[in-house]
Specification:
The chain is of the alpha/beta class.
Length: 691
Amino acid sequence: MNTKTLLSLAVCLAAVACAKPCRVVWTEGPTDPESGKTIHTMTLQNPPAGTDWTLWFSQFRTPVKMQEGAKAEILHHGGTLYRVAPTADAGGKEMVLRYEARALVNQCRAPEGFHLQVKGKKPVPVEVEYVFLPSEPVHTFDYTPADLTAYDMIPRLKKVEMLEGTTTFDDKDIPVFPAEGKPHGWYRIRLDGSIRIEFNDDDGAYYASVTLANLKRNAKDGTVPSAVIEDWPDLPYRGIMLDVSRNFTKKDDLLKLIDILAHYKVNRLHLHFGDDEGWRVEMDGLPELTSYGAYRGIPTLNEDGTISEPDALMYTYCVTPDRNDTQTTGNGFYTQADYIEILKYADAHHMLVVPEFDIPGHSRAAVKSMEYRFRTTGDATYRLWDPADTSKYNSAQDYCDNVIDVSLPSTYAFIEKVFDNLIALHAKAGVPLEAVHIGGDEVPDGSWAGSPSCQALMKANGVTDVDWLKDYFTNRVLDIAEARGVKIAGWQEVAQHLEPATYERVKRNLAFTNFWAVSRGRDVIGYNFANDGIPVVLSNSSNAYFDLAYNWSKTERGHSWAGFIDERRSFSFLPYDLYKSVRWDDKGQPTELATASDGKPALTAEGKPYILGVQGQLWSETLRNFDHVTYYLFPKAVGLFERGWNAVPAWAETTQPDDPAFVTDFDHFFSIIAEKEYPYYESLGISWHRH
């Protein structure tokens, strides 16, 4: 080797040794008060030479307009997947990209998950530094601490009659006696030196045990003042929906969550396991749902600028697009053994699991998984998409390929397979399957308009209105459910915009519908349903969407599209007087309470039994770990648990948002949270929101 070659090699090695990794500095821009425009800055330090590279990242949906002089474009590929595509060589210097986009609602909505991919090489993670505008913490309410006793707990006890003397807890067996003619879940505990329990049913006996556990926790030196407790739940359904599709909660963490929910006498766990971003329960005969649809990765960038997803879904709502990463919440699923264990564990805590896979919209994970099956095996038995479909639509989450083709026979073969799997899993666990929740929400306009098979089906049935396909789909799903003796459940859309015959059939087969949307005059839907004999679980976005941030501080995690929810907002939920459930505006200021007299339908005496209960929702777009799950729920959700148990508080008839009766009751309620629940959370080692 000659001297010149050695010198060249030395220069190359020195260059490699000195090369610095690419780094991103993302700077939040202010909003111009006159134009209303917000200009953010993304600075790429040490970008690769040339233009044969791309920088992938995840960003909550926002239109992007590059500013003059940018040496790259920011392109959107669907969902929350974006990439920086260079248009000029930065010459090894910084690449400063200024772009107009929406103002940052809060810091958790900033771009994340940056990965650099040089053409022909694997992507590598890129460090990011955030420069946010100054933000002050927000304090939404004050309260006056109340005097508490050992009998103060959540949900609060219906009746406590104090007796003379004290009762000490010991290890002696507690005698239990059945009672008759009492409400479901009723129990009575007499503590008069010894302890005696009466109960109406198994649930009542279990709730008595939970109350005793709380009393022991509250007892000083193992002793409490003697008393007689009589208690029961007002509403039969008191639930939490956890979205494990967008971001996954591992089995052990889910079991821990069940423990905490049982502490509040919650009796339903609604698992949203199938959506656009993931499928999370293993299915016999459909292995691709989890071998492909439970993982995320960097897509393949095609020559024409489109993307393909060869071995995993494109990464959205997560920071690690590596299908081999077992820690990221983007990956993971419950094996059949896991799911059976979850069912049994929930049942032991007197909690039913409601499984949901969302169809026909919100189905991207299923659609892509079955395409992967077809691509790798040639088997079209369960295919959910017609490749000749030219339909143009954009879903609420920015997908143009997330709707099942309802005209394909293979679609119903797939649905049958999933139903049969769920029925079998619940049977193996020995746990009732109350309903298969089919979602049914947010099917975007334009779906099926370009599907040749849908058009052929409509022509064969003599119809031209594409809306007819919803009735067709609903009836086909009902055929599957009825043949198996299984009830269905769904979001409110599942019972809307149907022909009369289909509507009546839905009513006969519906375990319940989740009423969720209260904006744009839709707050009347829940009572309209109940008054017409449709069972309703109140799941209002205004009071029970716990993925909404606690307040409007930019440092607070969570969404804001339906406002903000703190402990007051969940506590103020009135199942039998929904219109008065929002007592403050988004800045925490008292607002005028609406009533049925404002032209809204009142809940009738006949409709009241069809209000089955309440449910809180935790959608997981902004969750990145289990600490986030517990932080969002506790203590925000505790007000909902109180209201499911005690549905008609003493202040329910008040007409002013800050009526003294409400203020006094909330002060007492929040005093329990501060003095008793905070130490409970601390003992569990979980994350929670501190007021």
